[in-house]
Amino acid sequence: MTKFAQKFSAQAFCAIGRLLTLALFLTLFGASTVLAQTRAYVANIIENTVSVIDSASNTVIATVPVGQSPITVAVTPDGGFAYVANQGSNTVSVIDAATNTVIATVFVGLTPWAIAMTPSGDFVYVANQNSNTVSVIDTATNTVIATIPVGLQPIGVAVTPNGAFIYVGNSGDGTVSVIDAATNTVSATITGLSSPANVAITPDGAFAYVIDRGNNTVSVINTATNTVTATIPVGVSPTFLDFTPDGAFAYVSNFFSGSVSVIDTATNTVIALVPGPDLPTGVAVNPDGTFVYVGSINAHAVFLIDIATNTITGSIPVGNGPTGITFTKRAPAVDPIDALIAQVQALIAGGSLTQAQGDALIGKLHEIKTKIDTGQTNAACNQLSSFINQVQGFINNGSLSANQGQALIDAANAIKSSLGC
Questions:
Q1: Do residues 255 and 9 make contact, with C-beta atoms less than 8 angstroms apart?
Q2: Distance between CA atoms of 361 and 116, rounded to whole angstroms?
């Protein structure tokens, strides 16, 4: 074992503030649209670079210098930009994917560890471990527009597929904070974990899987009730995880076990253990669900696991100390009515609308969807106008702010335009 690897002793894992120790316990996987070529972005924490892999040829096509100790990466849905959390310089580097150069540097909180992109690509959420906050970056301006207090030492973050909620693993107090994206405030706190770190959301949004490095498990949270429904033992010092595109399996890297656990999400049991690579870190499943890319901080390489056989079939040399890995991925199509329902649900959860008010709007949207599905376009157009009037009424009586209501109205008008109303 190298001198670098020796730093990661059991004692070092208890020293929360230590450089690179906690850096190995979080990641995020981005959901983004495929460019002309599908790429994987690998944060190399030791040499302060990001390796860009062309997954068609499995070769590094660019090495991009970024900030100090880059740890995780998120990519915009159109694949145009990659956002890199630099835990050593308290910054996020913005990489232009067309030129593979850094075009902006955004200062965030102290020791940013995890980073997540909203499905719309409008915002980036960054967990700042030593500030006990989450920074919100507006990707249109590359500025921080909100700073959200969460639990102690947040080092994991993930956004639900509908963009309504953000789940944050707080390693210092054993909690998971749930942020309402509509208000950028914490709407729920889930307790009872040991030392939660990296978080990933199932593709259907029904569950959040949270690495609990304190007891070598993965906790499963039902996002409808925000309760822990299962606890899955994995290997020693689990670090990163990602799902297959269909959500059937989760792959978890076990740092000190030198293995990758394969979880069947239907039964929440480990069905396979892939040995190697040495000191595995970042995990990302490629967009077509055929291979898992796993970083090895000791080998300075990304190893390929064939999902059909759960065996390692090759490796790609990258930079020094690969940690977080993410792909440009094709995001599933979102029905505009479903997206509008999710907006209303977020307003209910945030307390802006009462359950009765929200149910009235959601009921109308379900009726509109039925009308559209059965070809009753004129009726759907009329009901969309009624929906807009009802939202305007909530603005007038103070239930919704002008901005909250206008967002719903704009979405409804966009649907009207698509129907030719």
A1: no
A2: 30
Residue type, 110: L
The two structure tokens encoding residue 18: 């230590």
Q: What are phi and psi of 261, to 5 degrees?
A: -85, 140
- Backbone phi, psi, residue 404, to 5°: -60, -45
Give the tokens for residue 409: 């109205």
Host H or E run for residue 333: none
Element (H, E) at 23: none
CA distance 272 to 302: 20
CA 260 to the chain's CA centroid: 20
Q: In this predicted model, what pLDDT tens digit does every residue of 327-364 receive, in sequence order?
A: 986 544 568 898 899 899 999 988 999 999 999 999 99
**Per-chain mean pLDDT for the chain:** 89
How does residue 206 score in pLDDT terms, banded at 50, 70 and 90? very high
Closest Cα to residue 315, out of 2, 59, 12? 59
Strand partners, 323: none
Question: Torsions phi, psi of 291, nearest 5?
Answer: -135, 150
Q: How far is CA 333 from the centre of its chain?
A: 17
Alpha helices in 43-195 (DSSP H): none
Q: Where are the beta strands (DSSP E) in 139-192?
A: 143-149, 154-159, 165-170, 175-180, 185-190
Nearest to 64 by CA among 26, 115, 112, 99: 99
DSSP letters for 212-223: ETTTTEEEEEET
Q: Is 181 exposed, middle or buried (0-12, 13-18, 19+ CB in 10 A)?
A: buried
Alpha-carbon span 347 to 356, nearest angstrom: 12
Give the tens place of pLDDT for each residue, 379-402: 999 999 999 999 999 999 999 999
pTM, full prediction: 0.73
Between strands 70-75 and 59-65, the pairing is unpaired
Question: Contact at 8 Å (CB) between 332 and 410?
Answer: no
